[in-house]
Design brief:
Elements: H1 7-13, H2 23-36, H3 39-48, H4 60-89, E1 95-98, H5 99-105, E2 119-122, H6 128-137, E3 140-142, H7 147-156, E4 163-165, E5 171-175, H8 189-195, E6 197-198, E7 205-207, H9 210-223, H10 230-244, H11 250-260, H12 264-278, H13 284-291, H14 299-310, H15 323-338, H16 341-356
Parallel strand pairs: 1-7, 2-5
Antiparallel strand pairs: 1-2, 3-4, 4-5, 6-7
Helix pairs in contact: 3-4, 4-6, 9-10, 9-11, 9-12, 10-12, 14-15
Length: about 350
Amino acid sequence: MPGVNDLVTEALRSPERTVEFTLGDWNVFVRQARIAGVLARIGLRLMELGLLDRLPDPVRPHVDAALIVAEKQIRDVRWEIHCIRDALATEGLPVILLKGAAYVAAGLPAARGRVFGDTDILVPKAEINSAERALRRAGWFGETMDDYDERYYRTWMHQIPPMHHFHRQTVIDVHHTIVPETARADINRQSLRDAAIPIDGLHGVHVLAPTDMVMHTAAHLFNEGEFEHGLRDLSDLDALLRHFGTDAGFWPALVERARLFGLHRPLSYALRFTHQILGTPVPSATFADAGRDGPGVVLSPLMTALFTRALRPHHGSCQDALTPLALWMLYVRAHHLRMPAHLLVPHLVRKAVKRRLPKNED
């Protein structure tokens, strides 16, 4: 259920429809696509269809620029992977890449035209200190934060605080599992690592197995409450499912794996909304099987109303009067999934008070 003027979702689903856009449509589309982080991805689809030359003259430079930036980001991510691999090798640690960096290393279609913010890696929890030490030696440093936030990351979350490289200004998120420690899931860390796949030509670098990669992307999108690039992440899922789904054995293994890890609900949402919004082909048997893990008949309409709003581009032309409420409810839901009530209430109160305090001036 795209918004009244959600041109980007329409273009992701049917790129050929863009030839019907007016100049006014293009003006809105470029803004929507840029803020959603999918302008280059749609540009590549138009290129594949031989439609780039049919873009209006004022539009073509915006798409060309997005394609150039996307190509550069791919090169940057590849270099960053080498730097991280070499840094961790000093402590004898292999690298398991997550999300966007994994798509690039594995040469997956989901990497094409993707916008990147940081590099995510997975290391054993027992080796977190060693990984952090190695990265510090190589030029990464942690964000400065107060004691509460530091404890929040290191005690309750699935990663340590983000680290920034002092020279390249790149960001790395070091994970020890794929969902927060306090989340209602049963993540077998060893099973994730054992199933990881080595990357040819990148000694010491691995990515999650196809089922685990999809499962992690689904959990990140539907459980984390971060929807600034929600449509981009949904498009990632679409690309992953289309690619891995050519293997018939992938689909039953995906549902079984998600249930084993307690991530069956976000997977059910992933299959439902990629199919509904982007037309992702999902076998009917898988759709029905995973659908049993979705919300009940009472909750389902509410979750549909919330997610369809959150998964639009975060541009005023795609929002309605209920969009802010939907995003707030999903934000609270994400924290509820992440933390038990005795931690959740004081945490949310603290965050609300902190947002209202004046920032210290240097």
